[in-house]
Amino acid sequence: MTSAAAATAARPTPASARLPSLTGLRWIAALLVFGFHAGTMRIIAEPDYKAVVDALFTLGLSGVQFFFILSGFVLVWSARVGDSRRTFWRRRVAKIYPNHLVLWGAALLVAWWFADPVLPAVALENLLLLQAWDPRPGWFYSINTVSWSLSCEFFFYLCLPLALPLLRRARPKLLWVLIVALPLLILALWPAQHLVPEASRWWFTQIFPPVRSLEFWMGAVAAELMRRGLWRGPGLTAASVIFLATWVAAAEWIRAELWTTLLAVAYLLVITAAADADVRGKRSPWRSRPVVWLGEVSFAFYLVHVLVMTSVLRWSGDWGTGFQGWRGPVAVLGFLLVNLVLAGLLHRFVETPMMRRLAPRRPALQVAVPQQRTASIEVNGREDRTADGVGTQAQAGEAAVGDVEQASGRSTYVDSR
């Protein structure tokens, strides 16, 4: 093989590549969010045990950053020429709305069971995924609290087809400027929050869709650079070490306004390194079948976990007090398993079949890829279940808060959110 041919083979093959490692990594992000909520809900009453959970998951809420960055990365990576805006938007709605609707209804049933008052306007706002735009306390976290992130994702989905032609035409220098500028803008949000009323500052920095879109666009720009073969970043091992060092330092010594930026950068490095490992056939611990399956169900897991835990704690009378002694850690493990089972059922019987039924079919467009199995990738936020080495665009899928597609009769699952 000539050096030119080798260079061509080494370059990523956009849209035809599947990225199973990104699906596997989604589970780690979902687990971080679960651990954070398990700690803040005070499920564990024993101080020593709780301290361990707090030490491990104190920054777990940043897992949502990972979802947003991954969403931007996979959707740009897997975007194909010829897809209309309407097709894109329909596919995204088909991917995330059925799960959302089921959990919305379940949350209303729980509210009825506990005789919790629910304003019709709040229920409607959540049903339409508009709650992230509402700064009123108790509104953006209402009904199924975690669905605020879907409200943000809907905004990202609306914007991407409008911005993608500009991204495709952007010069490399501009893309690199954006990669540097976007994390700095995230950092600048902390002094900027003083421009809004104090009661709305958490909403402004953590919920407001245009603000959270900065993370989405980080992933989108990085994907465009990698799509062109221009991305330069550390390998998966080095990126993982950088992330772990950043996590430890942020948890122990770094103020919140700085660690949010640093972790966003660390997540981006891990995502791009994992994608590159899949493209080039390098080793990745996130590509195994069990880990990929966990990544597939991570979207459903994310949607069910808070509702399940709060409902059980209220029913048992342990809300706000937690479980004493060894019962606390056992309860957390039990919640993890129960949520995983429910997520698997939701993924199997709602998410996948509804995506097949509602999403428009993509024509099977064959794309040339290197003969080596190493060039196969799985594009996902969740995954493509076809596991042999050569992929097609139809198999590539997409990802955002998750995507399931049918390609050649197989289930292509990609996630992002």
TrEMBL record:
One Pfam family cited in the UniProt record for this chain: Acyl_transf_3
Region (Disordered): 380-417
MF term (GO), any: acyltransferase activity
TM spans (from-to): 25-44, 56-77, 97-115, 146-167, 174-191, 260-279, 291-310, 330-350
Statement: the UniProt record of this protein carries the keyword Transferase: yes
Keywords assigned by UniProt, alphabetized: Acyltransferase, Membrane, Transferase, Transmembrane, Transmembrane helix
Record-linked PANTHER family: ACETYLTRANSFERASE, ACYL_TRANSF_3 DOMAIN-CONTAINING PROTEIN
Protein name stated in the entry: Acyltransferase
UniProt organism field: Micromonospora zamorensis
